[in-house]
């Protein structure tokens, strides 16, 4: 995180020097932005439910290319630090096998793993994002310009970790736990910083279409302050869901009188409501 901030500050300082050399009628503005967002995940399976509203904190480098007085292109490099939570429905007990902080896929099971009954999960993801949006600005009204933007944010997963809430048992045999009249008792437990094999759960690419509107304030010289509100609709799933191979899955449940493990994947899409502020040179 510190390295990202230092890098953005260094690039923005260079941009400030460049901007001072180009005069007031610039073809490009470069600067730093911060964004706070609310994540609204919509489950695509009846096994999970959204647990509250997730949060996004973003810091990044923004670049505006001005084609003329009123039309431009907004892009840059942004780093999104996000979290959101799911709860698992009570009617379908969900389990996974794990060793230490690694959740095991079906084809990795050795028989000595611990068994965890999952009741809730919090994701903590980091994305590198490239926004690409057309920007339409008004003519200057005093020191202010108002603008609207339309385009896409494309994100690439950098890191994903999970904090799980649930129960552990004195056996890892699900058949004994699910058997009628079972006397095995559950002990509440939190599994923090859990990891799955890369690409097994969180989708590596996220793309969203969005609109935004805001204002720029030319408060001194070549320096602009801006603030905007944006809404983004996710086009890609939040989790890997098209791989039908059970061997690559980690979570399973048993429904009714089934005597085998029914493996599944989490499915969800996301929309975001965001407030961005920043400074441009």
Automatic annotation (TrEMBL):
| Segment forming the signal sequence | 1-19
Q: Keywords, A to Z?
A: Signal
Q: Which InterPro entries match?
A: Beta-barrel_OMP_2 (IPR025665)
Span of domain Outer membrane protein beta-barrel: 18-239
Supply the name of the protein: Outer membrane protein beta-barrel domain-containing protein
- Source organism per entry reads Fluviicola taffensis (strain DSM 16823 / NCIMB 13979 / RW262)
């Amino acid at each position: 995180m510190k390295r990202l901030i230092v890098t953005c500050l260094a690039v923005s300082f260079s941009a400030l020097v460049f901007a001072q050399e180009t005069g007031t009628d610039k073809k490009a503005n470069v600067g730093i932005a911060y964004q706070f967002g609310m994540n609204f995940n919509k489950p695509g399976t009846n096994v999970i439910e959204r647990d509250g509203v997730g949060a996004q904190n973003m810091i990044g480098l923004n670049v505006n290319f001005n084609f003329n007085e009123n039309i431009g292109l907004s892009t840059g490099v942004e780093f999104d630090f996000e979290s959101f939570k799911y709860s698992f429905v009570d009617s379908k007990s969900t389990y996974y096998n794990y060793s230490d902080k690694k959740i095991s896929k079906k084809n990795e099971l050795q028989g000595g793993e611990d068994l965890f009954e999952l009741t809730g999960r919090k994701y903590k993801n980091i994305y590198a994002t490239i926004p690409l949006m057309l920007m339409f600005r008004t003519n200057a009204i005093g020191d202010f310009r108002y603008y609207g933007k339309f385009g896409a944010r494309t994100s690439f997963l950098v890191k994903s970790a999970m904090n799980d809430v649930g129960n552990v048992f004195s056996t890892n045999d699900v058949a004994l736990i699910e058997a009628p009249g079972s006397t095995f008792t559950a002990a509440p437990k939190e599994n923090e910083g859990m990891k799955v094999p890369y690409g097994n759960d969180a989708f590596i690419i996220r793309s969203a279409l969005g609109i935004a509107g805001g204002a720029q304030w030319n408060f001194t010289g070549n320096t602009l302050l801006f603030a905007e509100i944006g809404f983004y609709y996710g086009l890609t799933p939040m989790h890997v869901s098209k791989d039908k191979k059970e061997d690559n899955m980690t979570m399973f449940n048993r429904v009714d009188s089934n005597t085998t493990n029914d493996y599944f994947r989490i499915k969800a899409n996301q929309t975001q409501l965001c407030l961005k502020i920043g400074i441009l040179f």
